[in-house]
Amino acid sequence: DNHKPEGDTATRKGNLDFWMDIDDTIPSCSICFEQYEPTDHCYLNLDICRHQYHVDCILGWYEQSDEPFQCPCCRRDTTTLTKENILNMVKLMRREKEGMERVASGIVGDDGGRTGEDL
């Protein structure tokens, strides 16, 4: 079952075999077993097995591993899951989240310019 999210619901970059988003059907991180909270910022989903992790948990796990990485749960090999790709994806997600928060708060318009309230 190759169930990849599409559109605005997930952050994908190129042909990576993982994406950043939360799958509401998975209640907790497969490493720390803590439930996901709305305030958690980043989740990493693996295409090959659908296991989902907090980004900090997967980065901590991979500090102890050699690349190319495997899924911590099922040990399936990944081809593009590298520390560099994970960190790049986290940066991209944070920039997107900050941009959405600025637009929602009215500080920056959709076109990136300042709104009338702030002039």
Automatic annotation (TrEMBL):
Q: Which SUPFAM superfamilies match?
A: RING/U-box
The answer to whether keyword Metal-binding applies is yes
A Pfam family assignment: zf-RING_2
Domain RING-type intervals: 29-75
Give the Gene Ontology MF terms in alphabetical order.
zinc ion binding
Keyword Zinc part of the UniProt annotation: yes
Q: Which UniProt keywords apply?
A: Metal-binding, Zinc, Zinc-finger
Its protein name is RING-type domain-containing protein
Q: Which organism is it from?
A: Proboscia inermis
